[in-house]
Design a protein that fits this description.
By secondary structure, the chain is α+β, with helices and mostly antiparallel strands. It contains 19 helices and 25 strands. Strands 5-4-3-6-2-1-7-8 form an 8-stranded mixed β-sheet. Strands 9, 10, 11, 12, 13 and 14 form a 6-stranded mixed β-sheet that branches. Helix 1 crosses helix 4, helix 9 packs parallel to helix 10 and helix 14 crosses helix 16. The longest helix has 19 residues. The N and C termini lie far apart (88 Å). The structure holds adenosine-5'-diphosphate and magnesium ion. The site of adenosine-5'-diphosphate (ADP) has 22 residues, from helix 2 and helix 4.
């Protein structure tokens, strides 16, 4: 076939395919336009997951009557005029192709009025062609209605997912914009029912109540103020006690643009390292603010990705803010009042002392600086597994195994790499006979084991000689410890190379920590609590489980009917 320039309507459909992938992409572009127009209030409506109808109504600046046609032509925008403007984009839109793309694949009606005009304007396009235009009364602002998306591109229409899937995509998107713009009032209506609404009072935590529910939202920790050089980071993150099975609840905004970034997600999750059970993910709403010149937002037609000029600075900024917030503020899980205690079972629940929480101001941080433990006095041991201790704020029940794991973890981590310091020679070397699998695990981890302070020597066949152990573990039974560690390492999935050391340390801590079922003397319990007090993160074990639960003085009094 000879080369030909495509007819404009074909070119338009191809281009539209890049911007408009599904109903949620239409919602995204219309919402961005409304926000760029300075709207204070947005109504978003969808019918049948947006396939039949999408309507976005705003109270923004409106489009002047003589520009409405232009708004629908490709590469026409009011948001930039020179190539140099691309270097400092402050609006959400700038490519001037959204309305043209949407119009190419649907039936669009736009009604708009600027504050200077008496009468508004209505324009209707079908498949990109203007089919109607007239003056029409309208409050200031713009309403765009998109009907029968992909009606003229049957292949696209066929590949749309079910209405409920599309509905979920739309909800996720609107929720994100409401988080980025808490000062704007959002109302989302699906098939005639309000499913999400914000007040526009400018409070991110309040938006999170609407998105995640009161119980979760009030526990979220506000990120420490501040940033790294030119990048400021703010937002809300979940404490280690709240987590989810997927990364769907990590939201990042860069200069108020919702972005997808594996790099930022990784930075955030790194900061939670050892605080969450494996395979679980935090909830986070993180905003980065930086000069627009340090950013390239023109990476992708949907503008979902951004390039940072200095991406490692962005990585560090997120990781440090999140880490320091977690260290200062993560609360000790509390004991739920009444029912659980009455039924004789203490149950760890989220948040310290939930009683009375309803009255707490939602915007205030519930937990002050909670780094470190209060001084604790050991009272005794229960069930050969838990230490009961008393502190100024009530009673603590400490899981002896989890607490010791945390102590060992931090000691090993801090000594790592200092190979002379880390190991303590055994009085007499111990020979251990390994299975074939244990031996191959040993070979795989040989370097990391040595780095941690294990001195091991082949002794012919399947036997190895243990000559030294990491200092923090010198009390352990060397053979039992080594076998336990090798077996544990073998049962898990193969780690990525960078994760090997971290995996080994947590496994060694698990193997070396005192177990449930072990009777401890008062002296031993005191020593363990003392060591736990020295750790950076005393409240969770390295696998993210709590080391302790807390029953406050107030709760005790309430339970006994003293208040
Ligand atoms: P872009 O947002 O990239 O400029 P669009 O195709 O989305 O491109 O919109 C084209 C133009 O139409 C915008 O630059 C803006 O001037 C105008 N416009 C679109 N939607 C609205 C709205 N809701 N309120 C005011 N002006 C709008
Ligand atoms: Mg736009």
């Amino acid at each position: 076939m000879p080369i030909r320039v495509l007819p404009p309507e074909v070119a338009a459909k191809i281009a539209a395919g890049e911007v408009v992938e599904r109903p949620a992409s239409v919602v995204k572009e219309l919402v961005e336009n409304a926000l760029d127009a300075g709207a204070q209030s947005l109504h978003i409506e969808a019918a049948e997951g947006g396939r039949r109808l999408i309507r976005v109504l705003d109270d923004g600046c409106g489009v002047p009557s003589d520009e409405v046609e232009l708004a629908f032509s490709r590469y026409s925008t009011s948001k930039l005029s020179r190539a140099a403007d691309l270097e400092r984009i402050r609006t959400l839109g700038f490519r001037g192709e959204a309305l043209a793309s949407i119009a190419a694949v649907s039936q669009v009606t736009l009604i708009t009025r600027t504050p200077d005009e008496e009468l508004g304007t209505l324009i209707r396009l079908e498949g990109g062609e203007v089919v109607r235009r007239e003056g029409k009364g309208h409050p200031q602002g713009t309403a765009v209605t998109v009907e029968n998306l992909f009606y003229n591109t049957p292949a696209r229409r066929k590949f749309l997912r079910t209405a409920s899937t599309e509905r979920r995509h739309i909800s996720a998107l609107v929720t994100r914009y409401a988080m980025a713009y808490p000062e704007v009032r959002f109302t989302l209506i699906h098939d005639g029912r309000i499913t999400f609404q914000t007040s526009g009072r400018g409070d991110l935590r309040e938006v999170c109540i609407n998105a995640y529910g009161l119980d979760v939202a009030r526990e979220l920790l506000a990120l420490e103020e501040g940033g790294e050089g030119p990048i400021t980071v703010s937002g809300l993150i979940s404490p280690p006690s709240i987590h989810r099975a997927t990364r769907d609840h990590l939201s990042f905004f860069v200069n108020r643009r919702w972005v997808q970034s594996r790099m930022l997600a990784y930075a955030l999750e790194e900061a939670y390292h050892t605080l969450l059970p494996s395979g679980r993910h935090p909830i986070a709403v993180v905003e980065l603010t930086l000069a627009s010149t340090l950013l390239d937002v023109n990476v992708h037609p949907t503008k979902r990705e951004v390039h940072f000029r200095d991406s490692s600075a962005a990585f560090r900024a997120v990781q440090r803010r999140v880490r320091s917030t977690l260290m200062k503020k993560s609360p000790i899980p509390g004991v739920k009042p009444s029912q659980q205690v009455e039924s004789g079972r203490w149950k760890a629940v989220r948040g310290a002392d939930l009683g009375g929480a309803q009255q707490l101001p939602l915007t205030a941080e519930r937990s002050e600086d909670r780094r470190g433990l209060p001084p604790l006095r050991v009272i005794g041991q229960v069930g050969e597994a838990y230490i009961i201790a008393e502190g100024p704020e009530g009673v603590y029940l400490i899981d002896q195994h989890a607490a010791h794991e945390r102590v060992l973890y931090e000691q090993l981590r801090d000594q790592q790499g200092d190979s002379d310091l880390v190991k303590q020679g055994l009085l007499s070397a111990q020979a251990v006979e390994l299975t074939g699998e244990q031996k191959s695990t040993l070979e795989e981890y040989a370097e990391q084991l040595a780095g941690l302070g294990f001195e091991l020597e082949p002794f012919g066949g399947q036997t190895v000689l243990i000559r030294a152990l990491p200092v923090p573990l010198h009390d352990s039974n060397p053979a039992r410890l080594l076998i336990r560690v090798l077996d544990d390492l073998a049962t898990e999935l193969k780690p990525l190379s960078g994760e090997k050391e971290a995996r080994l340390i947590t496994t060694v801590c698990k193997g070396g920590a005192i177990k449930a079922g072990q009777t401890l003397s008062t002296e031993e319990m005191r020593e363990l609590i003392h060591q736990l007090e020295q750790t950076e993160m005393p409240r969770t074990c390295p696998h993210g489980r709590p080391t302790m639960i807390h029953l406050s003085q107030t709760q005790l009094e309430r339970e006994f009917g003293r208040r």
